[in-house]
Amino acid sequence: MGDYIIRAVTSDGAVRASCAITTSLVNAAQEIHKTSPTATAALGRLLTACAIMSDMMKGDKDSLTLQVDGGGPIGKLIAVGDSNANVKGYVANPLVDLPLKNGKLDVGGAVGKDGTLGIIRDFGLKEPYMGHVKLCTGEIGDDIALYYARSEQIPSVVALGVLVDRDYSVKAAGGMILQVMPEATDEQITKLEAMVREMPAISTMLEEGQTPEDILAFALRDFASYTFETSETAYKCDCSRERIERAVKSLGKAEIQDIIDTQINAELTCHFCNQKYVVTKSELEEMLKEE
Ligand SMILES: [Zn+2]
């Protein structure tokens, strides 16, 4: 079975939790962007969070964009997801790698923490909703938890993990987002805090063969019962020739004329999947004639 997400709610409504295995999709991102182990972990965590958060969206056409710009050596990271939990993303400097820190990939050092996490939710309305928080560690999980606490007033636990193998492939990746609803009692919150302290790293649990179902069972062990739904998630780019042509048109006529004057064709590469598109000179001239 490929990657999937399970989304659960406890029967008393106190906790909502989602858990995902994203090993294949983070592997796909690694292959597309040829990322270093540190960049794989950073982008993989962001893509995993994006998949889980996209899966929480309700409308068919909703989309979610996560942007991390921490001023560190790997530069800006972007992940975009749709309501079917298809995600895509990229990192500005995919080849930058850092030495291990305390035996772990130094995601915080690579991302930096002198910047922001931006979240754009597009519900197909006139204006998308935009929010942002200052980064706290650049480790991504902590930063998303802070975003939920500050911007949405939802106390959350965000655990994201990517384990990179010696050959740079992804051994295990996944994540969990657990949100405490106003219905939760103080006793339940105390128990959840104890659970979080005991919970091993999520990538370790997945590598050991535990499933998202097992991990949720561990996280929600103090609750009498919960229901859950399962959805697939994957790395999927939705670029197309039409989109690229729209993007070129949106440059405006002066800019298009400039391309015609200085280049033979316009060559564009999709940032998310590296697909190349060529818009020929005669196609550009056609665009100039259009209204
Ligand atoms: Zn693409």
Structure write-up:
There is one protein chain. 35% of the residues lie in helices and 29% in strands. With 291 residues, the protein is of the alpha+beta class. It folds into two domains: 4-235, 3-Layer(bab) Sandwich (Hsp33 domain), CATH 3.55.30; 241-289, Alpha-Beta Complex (CBS domain Like), CATH 3.90.1280.10. It has a six-stranded mixed β-sheet with strand order 7-6-3-4-5-11, with helices on one face. Strands 8-9-2-1-10 form a five-stranded antiparallel β-sheet, with helices on both faces. A two-stranded antiparallel sheet has the order 12-13. Helix 1 (23-33) crosses helix 2 (37-55) and helix 9 packs antiparallel against helix 10. The longest helix is centred in the N-terminal third of the chain and has 19 residues, at 37-55. The chain is globular, with a radius of gyration of 21 Å. The structure holds zinc ion (ZN). Zinc ion binds next to loops.
